[in-house]
C-alpha cells in the first residue's frame, strides 16, 4: 500500500480531536519562520520545517538519531540566548525522549519553544497507531515535567493562542498540535548531516 | 596514604580538571549525577558563567552538545561507564554529522571492582565507543588527567573529533563494598 493511502485509511479511524491539517496548521502556528533557529525532529516534522523554510540555513533537520531534537534545541538555546529557538518534533520522537522535558524544564531557557506535531501515529513507518491515540497526553507530561507554559491546539480557534505562546519569550514553551494523520508536505531533504551542520553554523556564526 | 590525604589528592586533580575545561571555553556541563565527577558537578553548579545541566539519561547529553555546537558553544558530557551504553544510537548524530564531542567517563567494572554488576558495561566501554567512532584516551594517574584532557580538547574542538577521556578506576579508586 502507498504511504498516502495508508494515511487516508488511518485518518478514517482516528479519534475526533485529531482534525487539523498539519500542512496548514504548522505554518499558521509558526508564522514568520525567519524569526527562529529551527531544530526539526526526524520524519514528518523534518518535512514540515524543510518545506516551511525552503531548506533554510536557519533549519537543522534530523533524519535519524531519534529523540535528539529537544535536547539539541536546549543546547542551541543556551549557546545563543539572544536568538529564539524552535524545536518541532512528532509524537513518536517525543515519546522516545520524555526525560528531555524534565531536563529542559529545570533549565527553563526563555528563548526555547517546543512544538509537538501529534498525529497519533508513527507516520514514517506506515502509520501504526502511537500511544497518543491510546490515551497518552503529551501536554500533561510536559506540565508534569515542570514546563509551566503549555497549550494544546486541536481546533482552528486555538491557533492564535498557540502562536502567541510559541513567541511569548518569558519561559520555555510547549505547544501540542493535534493533527489528522495525513502526509507532511512533499519536499527534498538534505540528508548530509555534516553539510547541514556547516551551513547552519556558517550562516549563524559568520554572518553577524 | 591515609584517607584524608587521598580525598585531598582526589579533589586537587578534579579542581585542576575543571579549571582546564573552563580555560578552554567550555560553558555547558551536562551529567547524570555521579560520585566520580562530584567535584566537577559541584564546581559547575557554583559557577555563574556556565550552564550546569542535569540529564535524566546520558544520550540527552550527546544531543545537547550537538545543539551547543550549532550555536558556537562548547560543552562536555560527564558520565559513568554504565552511561556509555545509553548513548550508542545517539552517537550516530555525532559521527554522521561530524559534531565535536567531548566526554569524561568515570570508569567502573575494571581495576579492583567489587560489584559484579559493573563489569558488563565497564568492560564494553572501549569497544562500544570505538565502534561508534569515539576515540578513547585513558588517564591512569593524577598527573595524567590535565594533559590528557588538554589533548582531547584539541582533538575535539580543533579537529572536530569525538573523544572520551576515561578516568580509570586505578585513578579514581575502587568503591568499597
In a few lines, what is going on in this structure?
The complex is a heterodimer of chains A (208) and B (177). Chain A has 9 helices and 8 strands. Chain A has 208 residues and is α/β, with parallel strands linked by helices.
Detailed description of the structure:
The complex is a heterodimer of chains A (208) and B (177). Chain A is 41% helix and 18% strand. Chain A is α/β, with parallel strands linked by helices and 208 residues long. Chain A has a single domain (3-205), classed as Thiamin diphosphate (ThDP)-binding fold, Pyr/PP domains (Rossmann fold), CATH 3.40.50.970. In chain A, the strands form 2 sheets. Chain A has a 6-stranded parallel β-sheet with strand order 2-1-3-4-8-7, sandwiched between helices. In chain A, strands 5-6 form a two-stranded antiparallel sheet. Chain A is globular and about 45 Å long. Chain A starts with a helix and ends with a helix. Chain B has 177 residues and is of the alpha/beta class. Chain B has one domain (3-172): Rossmann fold. Chain B has 8 helices and 6 strands; from the N terminus they run H-E-H-E-H-E-H-H-E-H-E-H-E-H. In chain B, helix 7 links the parallel strand 5 and strand 6. Classes of the chains: A alpha/beta (208), B alpha/beta (177). Chains A and B meet through helix 4, helix 6 and helix 9 of A and strand 2, helix 3 and helix 5 of B.
Write the layout of secondary structure elements.
The complex is a heterodimer of chains A (208) and B (177).
Chain A: H1 3-13, H2 22-30, E1 36-40, H3 44-53, E2 59-61, H4 69-79, E3 84-90, H5 91-96, H6 98-107, E4 112-118, E5 121-122, E6 128-129, H7 138-144, E7 149-153, H8 159-166, E8 173-178, H9 193-205
Chain B: H1 3-23, E1 28-31, H2 38-45, E2 51-54, H3 59-70, E3 75-80, H4 81-84, H5 91-97, E4 101-106, H6 119-131, E5 135-139, H7 142-157, E6 162-167, H8 169-172
Parallel strand pairs in B: 1-2, 1-3, 3-4, 4-6, 5-6
Helix pairs in contact in B: 1-2, 1-7
